[in-house]
Amino acid sequence: MESRENRRAFVRKLFVASQMVWAGDLLSSRVLSAEAEPAPAEALKFLVFGDWGRRGETDQTEVAAQMAITAKAQPARFIISVGDNFYEDGVTDVKDPQWQTSFEKVYADPALQVPWHVILGNHDYRGNCDAQIAYSRTSPRWHLPARYYRQTHRLDATTTADFFYLDTTPMLAEYALEDQMQAEIKSQDVPRQIEWFKNALTTSTAQWKIVFGHHPIFSGGEHGDTPELIKNILPILMENHVPVYFNGHDHDLQHLVCNDLNLICTGAGSQVRSTEPTQYTQFAKADSGFTAIELTPARMLVRMIDHTGKVLYTTCIHRPA
């Protein structure tokens, strides 16, 4: 198996080669100091996190408590999970005990009784993915209508935000080799999903286009960069001037910037692993926590908060021109 360094080298070569296609056709989304522009009261507020379902263990309960405090102080309209909702092997059905031990009883605070918009991670694929979709029909807050989907949020009379939720696990070749995941992986039509994503982004008239996937594109975390996403997803993001991509999978908190694309890793919902800086890194911390977002027509305020309630990092991303 090639070393991590060789894998990174391959990924960077692939990206550099691809840049010729995108160069000169990119719009700017400046990254500025958040203190320069406080969030107005009408901001769309929500939380994003992933890699959390451990029956209340390994910082999960502590992160949940701080999410509740944040959601109460600045009321969150909804919560987004970027996958790996249940460790180690997903759920078996809608009556699996983990629905209670890893979700309902851990995130029980009234401030967290808001819609949860969910995507699947690789650990979810080790179980019954359709059961997580089916749970949407039994839970007032769990929202997973399909393995990939789109939502529109209105920010004001003239501004909308389209959120695109991807199912990245079937896109990675390595998972088709896992006995426990083969059936689920092979049942998915990856080219069809990519074509849907490309068409949905291209036809979107929203002023904000924000994408969520489980796996990172670039990352300084344990798993590192994802060649399949660099090849198949990154060009689509660049061509459509997407300013932000959220992910989990690496159990840490990171902010990376590649050209005008902001990559927010928020996979620290419970257990964490080490991370290191890359050529794109603006911030990286191996600490359990979550990300709080305030979105306005003009900009996105990003705050990364740890399991003790400390704000580790803040930045402001302006909407593409």
Number of domains: 1
What's the mean pLDDT score? Answer: 90
The largest sheet is: 8 strands, mixed
Could you state the CATH homologous superfamily? Metallo-dependent phosphatases
The unreliable regions are: 1-40
Distance between the termini: 44 Å
Describe the structure in your own words.
- The chain is an alpha/beta fold and 321 residues long.
- Helix content is 24%, strand content 25%.
- It has eight helices and 15 strands.
- The protein has helices spanning 4-22, 60-73, 98-104, 129-134, 182-186, 190-203, 227-232, 234-239, and strands spanning 31-32, 44-49, 78-81, 116-118, 142-143, 149-156, 159-165, 208-212, 244-247, 253-258, 261-266, 281-285, 289-295, 299-306, 311-318.
- Strand 6 (149-156) and strand 7 form a beta hairpin.
- The chain is globular, with a radius of gyration of 18 Å.
- 44% of the residues are buried.
What attributes characterize this protein structure?
321 residues, alpha/beta, Purple Acid Phosphatase, chain A, domain 2, 8-stranded mixed β-sheet, 15 strands
